[in-house]
Design a protein that fits this description.
This protein is mainly α. It is built from seven helices and three strands. It has one domain. It is about 55% helix and about 10% strand. Helix 2 packs parallel to helix 3.
Length: about 170
């Protein structure tokens, strides 16, 4: 983010980075709503059974994912059918990706590749942008521990045997 700000200043163009994470999240959530509205609109007008419009929501933000899931339900957009897909960077929010796929949603993991001088700055930027995601790593670790205990001891974990949606409150924007 810092290098992008510096580069923009060198080029004499406006800063491409939002002032804070809350604004970034709000812009992303507004884009989700816009896209889901467009999908619902094309579904209502189309007589074709396959999607004319589909989207990949690439986010590690649990609040944005929950917002998208609520938006799908509110607009009667099915979890299956190719309308909406979810994606995260490999190793981030793996528990969320698992829960999405277990509940019928299309969930992908991506692995960046390329020259080291391009890939490493990209990964650093993602880790800066997603520092709040690190809390998800402890949840992933706990889920793995629970599954290991279930397999070793034959005990069923309630969170794994019957997945139920997790409700997250949207953070307040100052």
């Amino acid at each position: 983010m810092n290098s992008e700000r510096i580069r923009a200043k060198e080029l004499g163009i406006p800063d491409p980075i939002n002032a804070n994470k809350e604004i970034t999240d709000q812009n992303y959530n507004d884009a989700i709503d816009f896209l889901l509205d467009k999908i619902a609109e094309t579904r209502s007008k189309s007589k074709i059974s396959c999607p004319q419009l589909s989207v990949v929501l690439a986010t590690h933000n649990k609040y944005s994912i929950v917002r998208a899931l609520n938006g799908l339900a509110a607009r009667n957009i099915p979890s299956q059918g190719g309308y909406v897909h979810f994606a995260q960077l490999m190793g981030m929010q793996d528990g969320v990706a698992f829960a999405l796929s277990q509940n019928g949603y299309s969930s992908y993991k991506y692995i960046p590749y390329g020259p080291v001088k391009v890939t490493i700055p990209y990964l650093i930027r993602r880790s800066q942008e997603n520092s709040s995601v690190l809390g998800g790593a402890s949840a992933d670790r706990q889920n793995l521990f629970n599954e290991l205990a279930r397999r070793v001891h034959g005990k069923s974990s309630s969170s794994l045997s019957s997945p139920s949606p997790v409700v997250y409150e949207q953070p307040k924007v100052a």
